[in-house]
Amino acid sequence: MAAPHGPDTGRPPTRADRAMVTSPHTLASGAGVDVLRRGGSAVDAMIAVNAVLCVVYPHMAGLGGDGFWLIADPDGEVAGLNASGPAAQAATRDYYRERGHTDEIPVRGPLAAVTVPGAVDGWRLAHERYGRLPWSELFDDAVHYARHGAPVGRSLADWLVDDLAMLTAQETTARIFAPNGRAAVRGERLRQAELARTFETLAADGARKGFYEGDLARRFCAALEPGGSPLRSGDFAEYQAHWEEPLSTDYRGHTVYQLPPNTQGFTALQIINLVEGYDVGAWGDDTPDYYHHLAEVVKLAFSDRDEWLTDKHWVDIPLTELLSKRYADQRRQLVRSDRSMVMEEVEPGLKFRAGADRRSPAGDTCAFSVADADGMVVSAIQSIYHDFGCAVVAGDTGVIPQNRGSFFSLDDRHVNTMEPGKRTFHTLIPGLAFRDGRPWLAYGSMGGEGQPQTGIALLTRLIDFGYDVQQAIEAPRWLMGRTWGETDRDLSLEGRISDETVRDLKRRGQPVQMLPDWDDNVGHAQAIRLDPDNGFLESGADPRGDGAAIGF
Questions:
Q1: Looking at the 3D structure of the chain, how many domains does it have?
Q2: Domain span at 277
Q3: Out of 115, 198, 310, 365, which one is annotated catalytic?
Q4: What is the pLDDT of residues 268-316, one digit of tens each?
Q5: CA 442 to chain centre
Protein backbone atom coordinates (compact mmCIF):
# COMPACT_ATOMS: atom_id res chain seq x y z
CA MET A 1 0.00 0.00 0.00
CA ALA A 2 1.44 3.40 -0.98
CA ALA A 3 1.98 5.96 1.73
CA PRO A 4 -0.09 9.09 1.07
CA HIS A 5 2.65 11.31 2.45
CA GLY A 6 5.64 9.44 1.09
CA PRO A 7 8.01 10.95 -1.48
CA ASP A 8 6.58 11.00 -4.97
CA THR A 9 8.79 11.82 -7.93
CA GLY A 10 6.35 10.37 -10.41
CA ARG A 11 8.27 7.12 -10.76
CA PRO A 12 5.94 4.35 -9.58
CA PRO A 13 7.02 0.98 -8.25
CA THR A 14 7.19 -1.89 -10.72
CA ARG A 15 4.58 -4.55 -9.98
CA ALA A 16 4.35 -7.95 -11.65
CA ASP A 17 2.62 -11.26 -11.10
CA ARG A 18 5.26 -13.91 -11.86
CA ALA A 19 8.87 -12.77 -11.64
CA MET A 20 11.02 -9.70 -10.99
CA VAL A 21 14.58 -8.51 -11.47
CA THR A 22 16.15 -5.33 -10.12
CA SER A 23 19.74 -4.17 -10.52
CA PRO A 24 21.72 -0.93 -10.88
CA HIS A 25 21.92 -1.23 -14.68
CA THR A 26 19.01 -1.67 -17.07
CA LEU A 27 20.91 -4.02 -19.41
CA ALA A 28 21.75 -6.31 -16.49
CA SER A 29 18.13 -6.38 -15.36
CA GLY A 30 17.08 -7.20 -18.91
CA ALA A 31 19.53 -10.11 -19.07
CA GLY A 32 18.01 -11.54 -15.91
CA VAL A 33 14.48 -11.26 -17.25
CA ASP A 34 15.52 -13.03 -20.46
CA VAL A 35 16.90 -15.96 -18.44
CA LEU A 36 13.71 -16.19 -16.41
CA ARG A 37 11.54 -16.19 -19.53
CA ARG A 38 13.63 -19.07 -20.91
CA GLY A 39 12.80 -21.14 -17.85
CA GLY A 40 15.79 -20.33 -15.70
CA SER A 41 15.66 -20.12 -11.92
CA ALA A 42 16.24 -16.99 -9.87
CA VAL A 43 19.82 -18.19 -9.37
CA ASP A 44 20.35 -18.58 -13.13
CA ALA A 45 19.04 -15.05 -13.59
CA MET A 46 21.29 -13.69 -10.84
CA ILE A 47 24.37 -15.12 -12.54
CA ALA A 48 23.35 -13.55 -15.85
CA VAL A 49 22.68 -10.20 -14.13
CA ASN A 50 26.04 -10.26 -12.36
CA ALA A 51 27.89 -11.25 -15.53
CA VAL A 52 26.46 -8.27 -17.43
CA LEU A 53 27.26 -5.95 -14.53
CA CYS A 54 30.89 -7.09 -14.82
CA VAL A 55 30.81 -5.63 -18.34
CA VAL A 56 28.63 -2.53 -18.08
CA TYR A 57 29.60 -1.49 -14.51
CA PRO A 58 33.34 -2.30 -14.55
CA HIS A 59 34.05 0.37 -11.96
CA MET A 60 31.90 -1.47 -9.39
CA ALA A 61 31.67 -5.15 -10.37
CA GLY A 62 33.91 -7.66 -12.07
CA LEU A 63 35.19 -11.21 -12.42
CA GLY A 64 38.12 -10.14 -10.26
CA GLY A 65 35.92 -9.42 -7.23
CA ASP A 66 33.97 -11.08 -4.43
CA GLY A 67 30.28 -11.76 -3.90
CA PHE A 68 27.76 -12.71 -1.21
CA TRP A 69 24.30 -14.24 -1.64
CA LEU A 70 21.19 -14.94 0.41
CA ILE A 71 18.82 -17.44 -1.21
CA ALA A 72 15.30 -18.27 -0.03
CA ASP A 73 14.09 -21.43 -1.76
CA PRO A 74 10.40 -22.10 -2.52
CA ASP A 75 10.06 -23.95 0.82
CA GLY A 76 11.18 -20.85 2.74
CA GLU A 77 14.62 -22.19 3.69
CA VAL A 78 17.38 -19.58 3.66
CA ALA A 79 20.94 -20.35 2.54
CA GLY A 80 23.89 -17.99 2.68
CA LEU A 81 26.76 -18.07 0.20
CA ASN A 82 30.17 -16.59 0.93
CA ALA A 83 32.15 -16.09 -2.27
CA SER A 84 34.93 -13.93 -0.86
CA GLY A 85 38.49 -14.93 -1.53
CA PRO A 86 41.27 -15.32 1.04
CA ALA A 87 44.70 -13.74 1.07
CA ALA A 88 47.32 -15.47 -1.03
CA GLN A 89 49.64 -17.95 0.67
CA ALA A 90 52.56 -15.59 0.04
CA ALA A 91 50.66 -12.61 1.51
CA THR A 92 52.40 -12.25 4.85
CA ARG A 93 52.94 -9.01 6.71
CA ASP A 94 56.68 -9.45 6.22
CA TYR A 95 56.11 -9.74 2.45
CA TYR A 96 54.82 -6.17 2.44
CA ARG A 97 57.29 -4.85 4.99
CA GLU A 98 60.14 -6.13 2.86
CA ARG A 99 58.71 -4.07 0.01
CA GLY A 100 58.65 -0.88 2.07
CA HIS A 101 55.05 -0.98 3.32
CA THR A 102 55.03 -1.01 7.11
CA ASP A 103 51.72 0.70 7.88
CA GLU A 104 49.21 -0.10 5.14
CA ILE A 105 48.92 -2.23 2.03
CA PRO A 106 48.86 -0.14 -1.15
CA VAL A 107 45.35 0.61 -2.38
CA ARG A 108 46.15 0.57 -6.11
CA GLY A 109 48.40 -1.37 -8.43
CA PRO A 110 49.48 -5.03 -8.42
CA LEU A 111 50.54 -4.92 -4.75
CA ALA A 112 46.88 -4.27 -3.88
CA ALA A 113 45.93 -7.59 -5.54
CA VAL A 114 46.17 -9.63 -2.33
CA THR A 115 43.08 -11.86 -2.32
CA VAL A 116 41.70 -14.52 -4.69
CA PRO A 117 38.64 -13.36 -6.66
CA GLY A 118 35.73 -15.27 -5.18
CA ALA A 119 32.63 -14.27 -7.13
CA VAL A 120 32.91 -16.74 -10.00
CA ASP A 121 33.14 -19.78 -7.74
CA GLY A 122 30.07 -18.47 -5.93
CA TRP A 123 28.24 -18.60 -9.25
CA ARG A 124 29.34 -22.21 -9.66
CA LEU A 125 28.21 -23.23 -6.20
CA ALA A 126 24.82 -21.54 -6.51
CA HIS A 127 24.24 -23.01 -9.99
CA GLU A 128 25.10 -26.54 -8.88
CA ARG A 129 22.40 -26.41 -6.22
CA TYR A 130 19.71 -24.21 -7.76
CA GLY A 131 20.39 -23.81 -11.48
CA ARG A 132 18.01 -25.03 -14.19
CA LEU A 133 19.48 -23.75 -17.44
CA PRO A 134 22.86 -25.02 -18.67
CA TRP A 135 25.79 -23.03 -17.32
CA SER A 136 26.97 -22.17 -20.85
CA GLU A 137 23.73 -20.31 -21.62
CA LEU A 138 24.03 -17.79 -18.80
CA PHE A 139 26.73 -15.58 -20.33
CA ASP A 140 25.41 -14.76 -23.81
CA ASP A 141 24.53 -11.16 -22.99
CA ALA A 142 27.81 -10.55 -21.12
CA VAL A 143 29.79 -11.82 -24.11
CA HIS A 144 27.76 -9.72 -26.53
CA TYR A 145 28.12 -6.46 -24.58
CA ALA A 146 31.83 -7.05 -23.98
CA ARG A 147 32.61 -7.86 -27.64
CA HIS A 148 30.29 -5.48 -29.48
CA GLY A 149 30.25 -2.79 -26.83
CA ALA A 150 27.81 -1.43 -24.30
CA PRO A 151 26.68 2.18 -23.94
CA VAL A 152 28.50 4.04 -21.18
CA GLY A 153 26.00 4.91 -18.47
CA ARG A 154 25.88 7.94 -16.21
CA SER A 155 27.69 6.36 -13.25
CA LEU A 156 30.51 4.91 -15.35
CA ALA A 157 30.90 8.16 -17.28
CA ASP A 158 31.26 10.12 -14.05
CA TRP A 159 33.84 7.73 -12.64
CA LEU A 160 35.83 7.67 -15.88
CA VAL A 161 36.23 11.43 -15.56
CA ASP A 162 37.17 11.26 -11.88
CA ASP A 163 39.64 8.40 -12.41
CA LEU A 164 41.08 9.42 -15.78
CA ALA A 165 44.58 10.16 -14.45
CA MET A 166 44.68 6.83 -12.61
CA LEU A 167 43.41 4.85 -15.59
CA THR A 168 45.75 6.45 -18.13
CA ALA A 169 48.73 5.83 -15.84
CA GLN A 170 48.48 2.09 -16.55
CA GLU A 171 48.78 0.79 -20.09
CA THR A 172 46.40 -2.11 -19.42
CA THR A 173 43.57 0.14 -18.23
CA ALA A 174 44.28 3.01 -20.62
CA ARG A 175 43.86 0.87 -23.76
CA ILE A 176 40.40 -0.26 -22.60
CA PHE A 177 38.93 2.67 -20.70
CA ALA A 178 40.74 5.67 -22.21
CA PRO A 179 42.18 4.56 -25.59
CA ASN A 180 42.38 8.13 -26.87
CA GLY A 181 43.56 9.57 -23.60
CA ARG A 182 40.11 10.90 -22.72
CA ALA A 183 37.15 9.70 -20.72
CA ALA A 184 34.23 8.25 -22.66
CA VAL A 185 31.03 10.24 -22.37
CA ARG A 186 27.58 8.93 -21.66
CA GLY A 187 26.17 6.94 -24.55
CA GLU A 188 29.50 6.07 -26.17
CA ARG A 189 30.23 2.43 -26.95
CA LEU A 190 32.71 0.68 -24.66
CA ARG A 191 34.21 -2.53 -26.08
CA GLN A 192 36.15 -5.07 -24.01
CA ALA A 193 37.27 -7.80 -26.43
CA GLU A 194 39.62 -9.51 -23.98
CA LEU A 195 36.90 -9.72 -21.35
CA ALA A 196 34.58 -11.23 -23.99
CA ARG A 197 37.12 -14.02 -24.62
CA THR A 198 37.40 -14.65 -20.89
CA PHE A 199 33.62 -14.97 -20.59
CA GLU A 200 33.59 -17.37 -23.54
CA THR A 201 36.20 -19.54 -21.81
CA LEU A 202 34.22 -19.41 -18.58
CA ALA A 203 31.01 -20.38 -20.37
CA ALA A 204 32.58 -23.26 -22.26
CA ASP A 205 34.86 -24.73 -19.57
CA GLY A 206 33.00 -23.94 -16.36
CA ALA A 207 34.16 -22.01 -13.31
CA ARG A 208 36.83 -24.41 -12.09
CA LYS A 209 38.65 -25.19 -15.34
CA GLY A 210 37.72 -21.93 -17.03
CA PHE A 211 38.71 -19.56 -14.24
CA TYR A 212 40.44 -21.18 -11.26
CA GLU A 213 42.38 -24.23 -12.45
CA GLY A 214 43.36 -23.49 -16.03
CA ASP A 215 45.39 -21.21 -18.22
CA LEU A 216 43.40 -18.10 -17.33
CA ALA A 217 44.43 -18.24 -13.66
CA ARG A 218 48.07 -18.70 -14.70
CA ARG A 219 47.96 -15.70 -17.07
CA PHE A 220 46.11 -13.58 -14.50
CA CYS A 221 48.75 -14.12 -11.82
CA ALA A 222 51.73 -14.00 -14.19
CA ALA A 223 50.66 -10.54 -15.35
CA LEU A 224 50.49 -9.20 -11.78
CA GLU A 225 53.54 -10.89 -10.25
CA PRO A 226 56.20 -8.52 -11.72
CA GLY A 227 54.38 -5.61 -10.05
CA GLY A 228 54.52 -7.30 -6.65
CA SER A 229 51.20 -9.14 -6.26
CA PRO A 230 51.56 -12.20 -4.01
CA LEU A 231 48.78 -14.06 -5.89
CA ARG A 232 49.78 -17.30 -7.61
CA SER A 233 47.83 -19.77 -9.72
CA GLY A 234 47.98 -22.27 -6.84
CA ASP A 235 45.92 -19.84 -4.70
CA PHE A 236 43.23 -19.89 -7.40
CA ALA A 237 43.25 -23.68 -7.66
CA GLU A 238 42.85 -24.15 -3.90
CA TYR A 239 40.00 -21.68 -3.48
CA GLN A 240 36.35 -22.65 -3.13
CA ALA A 241 33.33 -20.57 -2.15
CA HIS A 242 31.24 -22.00 0.70
CA TRP A 243 27.73 -22.10 2.10
CA GLU A 244 27.00 -20.22 5.33
CA GLU A 245 24.29 -20.38 7.99
CA PRO A 246 22.76 -16.89 7.98
CA LEU A 247 22.35 -14.71 11.07
CA SER A 248 18.95 -13.21 11.86
CA THR A 249 17.01 -10.92 14.15
CA ASP A 250 13.39 -9.78 14.44
CA TYR A 251 11.99 -6.34 13.76
CA ARG A 252 8.30 -5.64 14.40
CA GLY A 253 7.09 -9.06 13.25
CA HIS A 254 9.64 -9.47 10.47
CA THR A 255 12.70 -11.75 10.51
CA VAL A 256 15.72 -10.14 8.89
CA TYR A 257 18.61 -12.26 7.58
CA GLN A 258 22.23 -11.31 7.05
CA LEU A 259 25.48 -13.20 6.53
CA PRO A 260 27.97 -13.80 9.35
CA PRO A 261 31.56 -12.48 9.42
CA ASN A 262 33.67 -11.81 7.46
CA THR A 263 30.81 -9.48 6.36
CA GLN A 264 29.39 -6.62 8.40
CA GLY A 265 26.03 -8.40 8.45
CA PHE A 266 25.96 -8.53 12.25
CA THR A 267 26.36 -4.74 12.24
CA ALA A 268 23.22 -4.35 10.14
CA LEU A 269 21.35 -6.59 12.59
CA GLN A 270 22.71 -4.65 15.59
CA ILE A 271 21.38 -1.44 14.08
CA ILE A 272 17.97 -3.09 13.63
CA ASN A 273 17.97 -4.23 17.28
CA LEU A 274 18.90 -0.75 18.48
CA VAL A 275 16.24 0.95 16.37
CA GLU A 276 13.51 -1.48 17.43
CA GLY A 277 13.52 0.08 20.90
CA TYR A 278 12.21 3.39 19.52
CA ASP A 279 8.75 4.35 18.34
CA VAL A 280 10.01 5.24 14.88
CA GLY A 281 6.55 5.75 13.44
CA ALA A 282 5.84 8.48 15.99
CA TRP A 283 8.85 10.50 14.81
CA GLY A 284 7.83 10.58 11.17
CA ASP A 285 10.20 10.68 8.22
CA ASP A 286 12.35 13.75 7.43
CA THR A 287 12.38 14.77 11.08
CA PRO A 288 15.35 15.61 13.30
CA ASP A 289 14.50 12.76 15.68
CA TYR A 290 14.54 10.20 12.87
CA TYR A 291 17.92 11.17 11.44
CA HIS A 292 19.51 11.90 14.81
CA HIS A 293 18.65 8.61 16.47
CA LEU A 294 19.52 6.51 13.46
CA ALA A 295 22.89 8.25 13.17
CA GLU A 296 23.57 7.66 16.87
CA VAL A 297 22.82 3.93 16.81
CA VAL A 298 25.05 3.59 13.74
CA LYS A 299 27.93 5.00 15.79
CA LEU A 300 27.33 2.36 18.47
CA ALA A 301 27.14 -0.50 15.98
CA PHE A 302 30.20 0.66 14.05
CA SER A 303 32.28 0.81 17.23
CA ASP A 304 31.59 -2.89 17.81
CA ARG A 305 32.10 -3.69 14.15
CA ASP A 306 35.50 -2.03 14.00
CA GLU A 307 36.54 -3.83 17.19
CA TRP A 308 35.58 -7.33 16.07
CA LEU A 309 34.97 -7.76 12.36
CA THR A 310 37.29 -10.10 10.49
CA ASP A 311 37.34 -13.72 9.32
CA LYS A 312 35.39 -15.65 11.98
CA HIS A 313 37.71 -18.63 11.52
CA TRP A 314 40.58 -16.58 12.97
CA VAL A 315 38.83 -14.79 15.86
CA ASP A 316 36.09 -16.03 18.19
CA ILE A 317 33.61 -13.20 17.62
CA PRO A 318 30.92 -13.04 20.38
CA LEU A 319 28.00 -12.89 17.93
CA THR A 320 25.41 -14.27 20.35
CA GLU A 321 26.00 -11.44 22.79
CA LEU A 322 26.46 -8.74 20.15
CA LEU A 323 23.11 -9.67 18.59
CA SER A 324 21.10 -10.13 21.77
CA LYS A 325 18.18 -7.80 22.45
CA ARG A 326 19.48 -7.37 25.99
CA TYR A 327 22.79 -6.03 24.68
CA ALA A 328 20.94 -3.63 22.37
CA ASP A 329 18.89 -2.38 25.32
CA GLN A 330 22.09 -1.68 27.25
CA ARG A 331 23.83 0.10 24.40
CA ARG A 332 20.77 2.18 23.55
CA GLN A 333 21.04 3.89 26.95
CA LEU A 334 24.10 5.74 25.65
CA VAL A 335 22.01 7.63 23.09
CA ARG A 336 20.82 11.09 24.08
CA SER A 337 18.05 12.73 22.13
CA ASP A 338 19.49 16.21 22.62
CA ARG A 339 23.18 15.66 21.91
CA SER A 340 25.34 13.89 19.36
CA MET A 341 28.09 11.49 20.33
CA VAL A 342 31.50 12.00 18.72
CA MET A 343 31.91 8.96 16.49
CA GLU A 344 35.65 8.52 17.06
CA GLU A 345 35.13 8.53 20.83
CA VAL A 346 32.39 5.88 20.98
CA GLU A 347 33.78 2.83 22.76
CA PRO A 348 32.78 -0.71 21.78
CA GLY A 349 30.59 -2.46 24.30
CA LEU A 350 32.71 -5.60 24.12
CA LYS A 351 36.48 -5.20 23.86
CA PHE A 352 38.82 -7.28 21.74
CA ARG A 353 42.38 -6.20 22.51
CA ALA A 354 44.61 -3.15 22.70
CA GLY A 355 46.11 -1.79 19.54
CA ALA A 356 43.13 -1.99 17.19
CA ASP A 357 42.96 1.04 14.93
CA ARG A 358 39.74 2.35 13.43
CA ARG A 359 40.20 2.31 9.67
CA SER A 360 37.06 3.20 7.79
CA PRO A 361 35.99 1.02 4.86
CA ALA A 362 34.96 2.53 1.57
CA GLY A 363 34.08 0.92 -1.69
CA ASP A 364 31.76 0.63 -4.62
CA THR A 365 29.43 -2.26 -5.13
CA CYS A 366 26.47 -3.64 -7.08
CA ALA A 367 23.41 -5.01 -5.26
CA PHE A 368 20.76 -6.91 -7.20
CA SER A 369 17.76 -9.13 -6.49
CA VAL A 370 15.59 -11.65 -8.33
CA ALA A 371 12.33 -13.42 -7.55
CA ASP A 372 11.14 -16.20 -9.84
CA ALA A 373 7.74 -17.71 -10.59
CA ASP A 374 8.41 -20.74 -8.39
CA GLY A 375 8.88 -18.70 -5.24
CA MET A 376 12.67 -18.53 -5.05
CA VAL A 377 13.95 -15.13 -3.91
CA VAL A 378 17.61 -14.15 -4.08
CA SER A 379 19.50 -11.12 -2.81
CA ALA A 380 23.12 -10.75 -3.87
CA ILE A 381 25.91 -8.21 -3.86
CA GLN A 382 29.22 -8.08 -5.71
CA SER A 383 32.18 -5.74 -5.76
CA ILE A 384 35.79 -5.13 -6.75
CA TYR A 385 36.05 -2.77 -3.69
CA HIS A 386 37.32 0.67 -4.78
CA ASP A 387 36.27 2.16 -8.11
CA PHE A 388 38.10 0.06 -10.72
CA GLY A 389 39.62 -2.10 -7.96
CA CYS A 390 43.41 -2.26 -8.24
CA ALA A 391 43.19 0.03 -11.30
CA VAL A 392 45.13 -2.45 -13.44
CA VAL A 393 43.94 -5.14 -15.83
CA ALA A 394 45.49 -8.56 -15.35
CA GLY A 395 47.34 -8.99 -18.62
CA ASP A 396 45.24 -10.09 -21.58
CA THR A 397 42.36 -11.46 -19.44
CA GLY A 398 40.37 -8.24 -19.46
CA VAL A 399 39.79 -8.73 -15.72
CA ILE A 400 40.42 -6.04 -13.11
CA PRO A 401 41.59 -7.56 -9.78
CA GLN A 402 39.81 -6.36 -6.68
CA ASN A 403 41.79 -4.42 -4.08
CA ARG A 404 39.74 -5.77 -1.16
CA GLY A 405 42.87 -7.16 0.48
CA SER A 406 44.26 -3.65 0.89
CA PHE A 407 41.88 -3.30 3.83
CA PHE A 408 43.87 -5.84 5.84
CA SER A 409 45.95 -4.31 8.62
CA LEU A 410 49.74 -4.80 8.85
CA ASP A 411 49.51 -4.25 12.63
CA ASP A 412 50.26 -7.59 14.32
CA ARG A 413 47.74 -6.81 17.09
CA HIS A 414 44.84 -5.73 14.90
CA VAL A 415 41.75 -7.94 14.72
CA ASN A 416 41.88 -7.74 10.91
CA THR A 417 45.61 -8.29 10.59
CA MET A 418 46.63 -9.99 7.37
CA GLU A 419 47.40 -13.70 7.38
CA PRO A 420 47.82 -16.10 4.44
CA GLY A 421 44.51 -17.81 3.76
CA LYS A 422 42.50 -15.32 5.81
CA ARG A 423 39.48 -13.42 4.52
CA THR A 424 39.40 -9.70 5.24
CA PHE A 425 36.71 -7.51 6.81
CA HIS A 426 33.96 -7.11 4.19
CA THR A 427 31.31 -4.43 3.88
CA LEU A 428 29.16 -6.43 1.43
CA ILE A 429 25.75 -7.36 2.87
CA PRO A 430 22.81 -8.68 0.87
CA GLY A 431 19.55 -8.54 2.83
CA LEU A 432 16.46 -10.72 3.11
CA ALA A 433 13.42 -10.21 5.33
CA PHE A 434 10.62 -12.69 6.05
CA ARG A 435 7.09 -12.14 7.32
CA ASP A 436 4.89 -14.95 8.62
CA GLY A 437 7.61 -17.44 7.73
CA ARG A 438 7.74 -16.49 4.04
CA PRO A 439 10.03 -14.20 2.02
CA TRP A 440 8.82 -10.61 2.19
CA LEU A 441 11.73 -8.42 1.02
CA ALA A 442 15.01 -8.85 -0.85
CA TYR A 443 17.13 -5.72 -0.65
CA GLY A 444 20.63 -4.29 -0.80
CA SER A 445 22.73 -1.30 -1.73
CA MET A 446 26.22 -0.31 -2.72
CA GLY A 447 28.08 2.07 -0.48
CA GLY A 448 30.62 0.62 2.00
CA GLU A 449 29.70 2.10 5.37
CA GLY A 450 26.37 3.18 3.94
CA GLN A 451 25.10 -0.33 3.25
CA PRO A 452 23.66 -1.08 6.72
CA GLN A 453 22.39 2.51 6.94
CA THR A 454 20.52 2.25 3.65
CA GLY A 455 19.21 -1.10 4.86
CA ILE A 456 17.62 0.38 7.99
CA ALA A 457 16.31 3.31 5.92
CA LEU A 458 14.47 0.88 3.64
CA LEU A 459 13.14 -1.24 6.51
CA THR A 460 11.85 1.68 8.58
CA ARG A 461 10.27 3.39 5.60
CA LEU A 462 8.54 0.20 4.49
CA ILE A 463 7.54 -1.13 7.92
CA ASP A 464 7.18 1.96 10.12
CA PHE A 465 6.00 4.49 7.53
CA GLY A 466 4.16 2.25 5.06
CA TYR A 467 5.92 3.45 1.92
CA ASP A 468 5.90 1.44 -1.28
CA VAL A 469 9.26 0.14 -2.48
CA GLN A 470 10.00 2.94 -4.93
CA GLN A 471 9.13 5.57 -2.32
CA ALA A 472 11.39 3.88 0.23
CA ILE A 473 14.27 3.85 -2.25
CA GLU A 474 13.79 7.45 -3.35
CA ALA A 475 13.30 9.02 0.10
CA PRO A 476 16.22 11.25 1.14
CA ARG A 477 19.04 9.31 2.76
CA TRP A 478 21.94 10.01 5.05
CA LEU A 479 25.40 8.58 5.63
CA MET A 480 27.05 8.57 9.03
CA GLY A 481 30.75 8.06 8.37
CA ARG A 482 33.27 8.80 5.68
CA THR A 483 31.89 9.61 2.26
CA TRP A 484 33.87 8.65 -0.81
CA GLY A 485 37.27 10.35 -0.92
CA GLU A 486 36.77 12.24 2.36
CA THR A 487 38.76 11.91 5.57
CA ASP A 488 36.25 13.33 8.05
CA ARG A 489 33.42 11.30 9.54
CA ASP A 490 30.43 13.50 8.97
CA LEU A 491 26.68 13.06 8.92
CA SER A 492 26.11 13.56 5.20
CA LEU A 493 22.55 14.46 4.22
CA GLU A 494 20.97 14.62 0.81
CA GLY A 495 19.86 18.14 -0.09
CA ARG A 496 16.17 17.26 -0.17
CA ILE A 497 16.14 16.98 3.64
CA SER A 498 14.39 20.05 5.00
CA ASP A 499 16.29 23.11 6.23
CA GLU A 500 14.46 22.91 9.55
CA THR A 501 15.66 19.34 10.10
CA VAL A 502 19.22 20.26 9.15
CA ARG A 503 19.27 23.20 11.60
CA ASP A 504 17.99 21.01 14.43
CA LEU A 505 20.59 18.30 13.75
CA LYS A 506 23.36 20.90 13.84
CA ARG A 507 21.96 22.21 17.13
CA ARG A 508 22.29 18.70 18.58
CA GLY A 509 25.93 18.63 17.54
CA GLN A 510 25.70 16.38 14.50
CA PRO A 511 28.61 16.99 12.10
CA VAL A 512 26.32 17.78 9.19
CA GLN A 513 27.64 17.91 5.64
CA MET A 514 25.18 18.61 2.86
CA LEU A 515 25.17 16.60 -0.36
CA PRO A 516 23.32 17.27 -3.63
CA ASP A 517 19.63 16.39 -3.72
CA TRP A 518 20.46 12.97 -5.23
CA ASP A 519 23.92 11.64 -4.45
CA ASP A 520 25.88 8.45 -5.18
CA ASN A 521 27.51 8.59 -1.75
CA VAL A 522 24.33 7.27 -0.12
CA GLY A 523 24.28 4.26 -2.44
CA HIS A 524 22.27 2.67 -5.21
CA ALA A 525 19.52 0.69 -3.49
CA GLN A 526 17.48 -2.13 -5.02
CA ALA A 527 14.58 -4.07 -3.49
CA ILE A 528 11.82 -6.54 -4.27
CA ARG A 529 8.86 -6.91 -1.93
CA LEU A 530 6.37 -9.75 -2.06
CA ASP A 531 3.21 -7.77 -1.38
CA PRO A 532 0.99 -9.86 0.91
CA ASP A 533 -2.06 -7.68 0.24
CA ASN A 534 -2.43 -8.51 -3.43
CA GLY A 535 0.17 -11.18 -4.18
CA PHE A 536 2.14 -9.03 -6.60
CA LEU A 537 5.89 -8.66 -6.66
CA GLU A 538 6.63 -4.97 -6.05
CA SER A 539 10.04 -3.58 -6.88
CA GLY A 540 12.01 -0.43 -7.37
CA ALA A 541 15.33 0.78 -8.70
CA ASP A 542 17.37 3.70 -7.47
CA PRO A 543 17.37 6.87 -9.62
CA ARG A 544 20.83 7.52 -8.17
CA GLY A 545 22.04 4.64 -10.37
CA ASP A 546 21.41 3.46 -13.93
CA GLY A 547 19.15 0.55 -13.10
CA ALA A 548 15.65 -0.71 -13.58
CA ALA A 549 13.18 -3.05 -11.93
CA ILE A 550 11.66 -5.28 -14.61
CA GLY A 551 8.97 -7.87 -14.07
CA PHE A 552 6.46 -9.95 -15.97
A1: 2
A2: 244-361+429-551
A3: 365
A4: 999 999 999 999 999 999 899 999 999 999 999 999 999 999 999 999 9
A5: 13
